[in-house]
């Protein structure tokens, strides 16, 4: 099949896989933090649930929602990355990811972003940056105890 | 995977030479996108402009521009003549009786808001009802919702059937004496449905109900005759009929327009102003406050000239052929379900694909040079009606070709392969 | 009859080469009218457009047009980038802090109506007062008059002195606790007066009063810095700064804009819509319902680029020279009285002539190729203030020449001869 | 003095004279008919007063008001023309005058319009047609018992 490079870059195997089989796709009954994310442009909606322990480290994390492959895969990969990390580190990764997605830094500049490099293709597609970052924005909002977050 | 192509069909579906000639009048259509030829299938969002219209707008600025109505000098007279001349073109285009019924606005949205204020504020209140169809664009929902907040009028929704036609039985049953207005689009931008506006307006008229028709998706495609349709209000936008953005039209029946208070206040809509008393101007100026969209009106007039310069029946029939062809070819795509299959449709095809989000479809299609819209199409209640979050929509104009439909289908097949979609 | 011309003066008043170069960028300026060269002195009504702006608009249509904000495809992204890029240009042009404070409207009039509804409806009522200056354009009177009808707020008029300056003592005395808003133009279109907006806004701010500044006549001439002026609202139009008709800007302070309800309802200004509940979008989109004036925003951005491409201090100083020269030359015309002689003036000259009606003056001037405006200039209260029915107004832009002022004067002398006017 | 032909055509001696010395420029205390005319475009305002006798013939007619030379001269000349005429004839003249002013007929086509030919120059100036016809429109409104008439 002949796909443009842009498409191949964007829809890498790992993204297609997480889209089809999202990890930690479930509701956590008693989260310590939670927030709803909404991207009105494409209708993506997702809820992020978090359980932090007393050291501010992520004990459990999950999401549910409906969205495009990019946002779903991003949420799924995010849950696997932030597990067992301190929230300061989570925030640092989010900032790095955000900079990579918006083209401010190169994907290989920051070793912490290794598993997120699959999303570097969105930088060519301004309309899709928000899909890639929605889950992270929502997580960030949950940590800030904001309940609803909207990106567009 | 592709359907068998018989010789006869291939002939039938060859894009006519007249269409290829027309295409050359639209510079943007020869653009490349991602190194692919552009297939612009987002005409319901906004149509493209022929060179002739651009040239008319430029010539207006190069030779005639000035403010209108107030000037004794030559340029002002010329600008006024062009501006009012365009109004006459619009009048003839929609077969209105009188130019006083043709009010320039900044677009369909502004026109519908004007009605909701100037007609609505003083005509409805608690205990009254306004019917809005389930397939309306937000432009024909939100102004009524805001009116409801202001006045207490109740909004009720006219349901639609599964194929995307209006439920006319339910509609008739809803027409009780509390109903003051019925708001329906002529053509649905999300589903393509062509609504039986003449029948709807007739049912309203019998009962003294005001009919508000959103014609944004109709004027560029159907021949619209507001007298034959016998509607009370009809609204549309220049940019959906190959004219400029920044301009739209509100048509209304004279007795209604005459009785309505103005909406926006400012220059040109008044006869005299003191701090104690203001006298409104006559129609249509009463509703045209401030410097109007002069160059845009001239551009709209040029777009009308352009359309009139072609056999519109031919263009319409051709668009309907594009629609049938799209229906046929897209049916070959695994996992694809059409949303909106009414018997009377404009050349708009909305669909969902199993397990693939429209946003991803849109991006991949864009990579193949195919411009479609994905999302809710400013018609969230339609999405709710079908229990979906969004669709992919291909909307055609007369300058599209059968080859572009093939390009769309081929791109969709790539989506199904990438996402492993099967029927 | 003509005044003695000293050598020195003739040199001083030679139109600079830079201005002659600029003129060539405006095709309409080389037009003939009644076989005479056109002297376009009606810039306060609408300014002319340089070729560069026309070309930018055409290029937009030829290569990039599409609807904005909602599309995943390339053209939609390009159109959105151009549209939002123009917003950033406007932000920088008026020195606003944030693009969310830059709201596209269809013009000054629409912007002022937006304030009167979205701010006014919920903020004022019986017992409150809004101050409107005696030199306002109808666009900054009628919306407040209509608001008064809706809410019972009282409108009071800030008087002006004989020379056309605002009576600042009277103004200060009027600032009692009932005052909720003060509505003043930055530059009067009828008198030319430049108002001390920074002082006015400061006096308002101290008292918690909202300042509403109509900048329609200012942005094309003065350097406007909304942060330095520290105003609450500032409105202007594209067509008065060499951009297109059909577009204007409302600038507002964030806390005010954030708290205001939307004005028009439709697509793009909402986040979600059901028939029971609607969530408004964020700034600036909350106030931009429907397909916006996309090509016009792009054109406005090009006009800003054009202005920024010149030394604006030079242009302003040159306009002031034109003003002095016009004052001098027109003083030579028998029976002529200036209306508006404030010390701080934009290059606008309004006058009456003994026993000759401005309408006749306008027609005769037109016969000589001179385009001026005659009438009330949408400022009837100014006419009432001076006990006149109308004036003749010559309004200059930086592309006008000293020779055009001579042409105006010579034409006025013909009027005096025809009508037998003596001092 | 070099004036364009258009200006000379428009501001003929007779018009300048009637503008300077308008005839029947006075209020009639007890008119049988009266109306106010207003041209908001240029601010012209005038009141027309009429006294008809029992045969519907104009016994007296006058005007007052403020306006441009064209509208004032037109009102002045109108009063001198309609005096002693039956209202049917007045209306016929008005129709003819209107057709001449808007360029529908030539000035010399209708002998009744002889004294109105001075106004034929307005046909080249659409913005001024209303000035020339305001007084007539107002007279017509007075005859129809409309009180305020606006042209623009
Ligand atoms: C001082 C002033 N305010 C407001 C306006 C209205 O602007 P617009 O007609 O572009 O809405 C004008 C121009 O006519 C003006 O000169
Ligand atoms: C059916 C329908 N109604 C109304 C509108 C609103 O038109 P505009 O955005 O030009 O105001 C549109 C277009 O977006 C539409 O498709």
Give a structural overview.
The complex is a heterotetramer, with 2 copies of chain A (152 residues) and 2 copies of chain B (423 residues). By secondary structure, chain A is α+β, with helices and mostly antiparallel strands. Chain A has one domain (22-150): Sufe protein. Chain: A. Helices cover 40% and strands 18% of the residues of chain A. Chain A is built from 5 helices and 4 strands. Chain A has helices at 5-10, 13-20, 69-82, 87-101, 126-143; strands at 33-39, 44-52, 58-66, 148-150. In chain A, helix 3 (69-82) runs parallel beside helix 5. The radius of gyration of chain A is 15 Å and the shape is globular. Chain B has 2 domains: 17-49 and 311-419, Aspartate Aminotransferase, domain 1, CATH 3.90.1150; 65-308, Aspartate Aminotransferase, domain 2 (3-Layer(aba) Sandwich), CATH 3.40.640.10. With 423 residues, chain B is α/β, with parallel strands linked by helices. Chain B has helices spanning 7-12, 17-24, 51-64, 74-94, 108-123, 142-151, 168-174, 197-206, 226-229, 254-259, 294-308, 312-331, 358-367, 380-386, 402-418; strands at residues 32-33, 36-37, 39-40, 102-105, 129-133, 154-158, 179-185, 210-214, 233-237, 248-252, 270-273, 278-280, 336-338, 348-353, 370-371, 373-375, 391-395. The termini of chain B are close together. Mean pLDDT of chain B is 95; it is low at 1-11. In chain B, the strands form 5 sheets. Chain B has a 7-stranded mixed sheet, with helices on both faces. Chain B binds chain D through residues 69-72, 76-77, 81, 271-272, 281-282, and chain D through 38, 40-42, 125-128, 150, 152. One pyridoxal-5'-phosphate sits between chains C (44, 107-109, 137, 139-140, 185, 189, 214, 216-217, 237, 378) and B (267, 290-291).
């Amino acid at each position: 099949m002949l796909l443009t490079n842009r498409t191949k870059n964007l829809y890498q195997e790992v993204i297609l896989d997480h889209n089809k089989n999202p990890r930690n796709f479930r509701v956590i009954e008693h989260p310590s933090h939670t927030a709803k994310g909404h991207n009105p442009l494409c209708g993506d909606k997702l809820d992020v649930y978090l359980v932090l322990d007393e050291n501010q480290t992520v004990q459990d994390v999950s999401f549910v929602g409906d969205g495009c492959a990019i946002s779903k895969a991003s949420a799924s990969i995010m849950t696997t990355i932030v597990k067992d990390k301190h929230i300061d580190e989570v925030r640092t990764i989010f900032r790095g990811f955000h900079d990579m997605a918006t083209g401010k830094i190169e994907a290989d500049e920051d070793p912490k972003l290794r598993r997120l490099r699959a999303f570097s293709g969105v930088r060519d597609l301004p309309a899709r940056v928000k899909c890639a970052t929605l889950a992270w924005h929502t997580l960030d909002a949950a940590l800030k105890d904001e309940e609803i977050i909207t990106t567009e | 995977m592709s359907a068998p192509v018989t010789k006869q069909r291939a002939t039938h579906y060859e894009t006519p030479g007249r269409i290829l000639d027309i295409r050359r009048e639209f510079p943007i259509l020869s653009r490349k996108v991602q190194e692919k030829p552009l297939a612009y299938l987002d005409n319901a969002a906004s149509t493209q402009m022929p060179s002739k219209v651009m040239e008319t707008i430029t010539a207006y600025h190069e030779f005639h521009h000035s403010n209108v109505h107030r000037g004794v000098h030559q340029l002002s007279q010329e600008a006024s003549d062009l501006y009012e001349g365009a109004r006459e073109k619009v009048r003839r285009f929609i077969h209105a009786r009188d130019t006083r019924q043709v009010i320039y606005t900044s677009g369909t949205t502004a026109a519908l808001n004007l009605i909701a204020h100037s007609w609505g504020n003083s005509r409805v209140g608690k205990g009254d009802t306004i019917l809005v169809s389930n397939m309306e664009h937000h432009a024909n929902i939100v102004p009524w919702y805001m009116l409801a907040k202001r006045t207490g009028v109740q909004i009720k929704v006219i349901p639609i059937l599964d194929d995307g036609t209006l439920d006319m039985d339910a509609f008739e049953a809803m027409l009780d004496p509390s109903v003051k207005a019925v708001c329906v689009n002529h053509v649905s931008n999300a589903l393509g449905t062509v609504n039986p506006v003449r029948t709807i307006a007739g049912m309203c008229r019998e009962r003294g109900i005001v009919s508000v028709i959103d014609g944004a998706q109709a004027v560029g495609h159907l021949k619209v005759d507001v007298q034959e349709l016998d509607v009370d209000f009809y609204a549309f936008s220049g940019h959906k009929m190959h004219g400029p953005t920044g301009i739209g039209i509100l048509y209304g029946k004279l007795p209604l327009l005459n009785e309505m208070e103005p909406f926006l206040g400012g220059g040109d809509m008044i006869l005299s102003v003191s701090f104690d008393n203001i006298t409104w101007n006559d129609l249509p100026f009463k509703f045209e406050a401030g410097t109007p969209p002069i160059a845009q009106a001239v551009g709209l007039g040029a777009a009308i000239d352009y359309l009139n310069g072609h056999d519109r029946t031919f263009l319409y029939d051709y668009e309907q052929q594009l629609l049938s062809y799209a229906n046929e070819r897209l049916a070959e795509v695994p996992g694809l379900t059409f949303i909106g299959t009414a018997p009377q449709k404009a050349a708009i095809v909305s669909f969902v694909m199993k397990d693939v989000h429209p946003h991803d479809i849109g991006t991949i299609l864009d990579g193949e040079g195919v411009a479609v819209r994905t999302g809710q199409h400013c018609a969230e209640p339609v999405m709710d009606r079908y229990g979906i979050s969004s669709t992919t929509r291909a909307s055609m104009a007369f300058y599209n070709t059968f080859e572009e439909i093939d390009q769309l289908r081929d791109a969709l097949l790539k989506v199904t392969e990438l996402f492993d979609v099967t029927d």
